[in-house]
Structures are given as structure tokens and as C-alpha cells.
Amino acid sequence: MELWQLRQMQGLPLELKVIKSKQRIKEWHEYWDGQVYISFSGGKDSTVLLDLARRIYPNIEAVFVDTGLEYPEIRTFVKTFNNVTWLKPKMNFRQVIEQYGYPVISKRVSRQIHDVKKHGENCWAWGCFDGRRKGFYNMEKWKPLIEAPFKISDQCCNVMKKKPAKEYRKKTGKKAIFGTRADESQQRVATWLKQGCNAFDNKDPKSNPISFWTEQDILQYLKQFNIPYASIYGDIVENEHGKLMTTGASRTGCVFCMFGVHLEKEPNRFQKMKITHPQLYQYCMKPWSDGGLGLAEVLDFINVPYGDYIPQLKDYEQIKLY
Known about the structure:
This protein is of the alpha/beta class and about 325 residues long. It has 12 helices and 10 strands.
């Protein structure tokens, strides 16, 4: 696939995207004789995916990985659906941090930092921080993380989400349908260019039928078709530029994850958490030695604010605090 093809598909009107995505779902379902399931996180993207799929196949199974890292509102929302299989990882988040390290900046940065911390300057990853690697693999700005007084790793998602789901696929023989979008990261763009929406020939076949949708498509679909979604997102409204946005959380995912937080404008996810979920906030910021997760130390190291947010915005922007 070519990048221009992805851009062309991303530019299609929602009505055509709905048709194309349903076609991808049907192709996947028919190819595997119905032995498929929806990977359902309770987030807005997978909510749209599940709605699309169940308009075609009302009894299609959904699978939810209960990591313990979801907002309470997400778990409550998932419980409103029938035919949902709940899976649990074998390790909790604290155990993952202790064994592997904290998820910081991004998966690829965390992966390379972990390798350098473990293997030293002789490993391939060292070239990402000494100027030898260019473009996508140049990570010189994150070189100070090599000296961080805590472990760093990208293994959290693998251990807590991917592994339980992979074991389920191996046990049942069912093939997964995911609600990931290419516009979420460079890595997902690369994945789409390599395999498109339906990767029938992968070692672990996967379908991503809404991968060419955008954030605006997701919000428009939820609003236009009046689809119920998790309350953590608040309402869907138009901002001053005519773009759709949520008055609550813009993303959910794993509540304690620090991937991408350095890019967020204030109030960031942790400043919001302090207001909306104070008990979760106290637990994640409390020092490791006191039984907490020690995120405050990590956020201090990467210069990300997490304390009280002092609004200096226009009134209409305060809605983002939810």
C-alpha cells in the first residue's frame, strides 16, 4: 500500500467509510467462517467498531482485557454489553513496573532506553542516542533517560493486554478485529502501509477495519447515530473551530500510562485525574516505598506537571477539565 492511498481513504466522507469498514468486517468474518471476535476496550474507537460489527452480526463476541488500569467508568460501561468475554493478565501493573520498568514517552523510546540500560553502549539501540541513527530512530533528545534512577520499558502493554489476548486466540482459534486507527502514531501508519486493513497472511492474523478513520469520524459517528459511550468522555460538542471534541477525557486507555503525556497541553491527563479521580491520583503519585506507583518521581524527571492546574485560559476552554 502507498501513503497516498491512506490519505485518500482518510479523506472520504463518513458514509463511505462506514460502507468500506463493514465490507472489511464481512470479508474477515466470512474468511474465518465466523470464528472471530471484537477486541473491545470500552473506549470510543472500539465502541464504534463493536456497533458497526453488531449491525451486521448481532451476536458477534467481544473480548475485554480487564487489566485493572481502566477508569471505573470504562469497566462500568463494558458491563452494559452482552456476550463479552473478560480476560485478566497474570501480572498487575506494579509487578510489571518492578520487573520491567515504567512506560515513558512512547513505546519505541522506552524500548530503546530499556535495551541501552540493560546492554550498554554495545547494543544497536545506543545508536539512537549518539547521533548515528537518523529520522524515525533518532532519539538524542531522550538520552538523559538512560541515566534515570528508575527502570523504563515498553513491556506493559505486551504483558497486560497483548499476552492474555494472544493466549485466548491460541486457545479458541478465533481471529481478532481491532479498532486501532492509523492516524494515532507513525508506527500504525507503517503497519497500515504494510498490511492494509485485513492482514490475512500474518503469523497472527488481525483485522483493523476502521484504521483509515480519523478522530473526527469517530466522534461524528457516535453523535450522528446516538451511540451510547463511556461517561468518562463527557459530551461531544463543537469547539470554536467547528471541530468535534469531548468535554471529558479525550483518550482513556490505561489510566496510569505515561506514553505521550509530555505532548499534552495543561491540564494534562494527571492534572485532570487529580480532580476527577483523587484516590487513583494519590495511589499513582505516592512513592514506591509507601506502596504507591511512584509516578511523581518519573514525571518530575521528564518535566511534566502533575499538580494543581491554575487555569489561564478562556472560559470556553475550561470545558476540557470535565
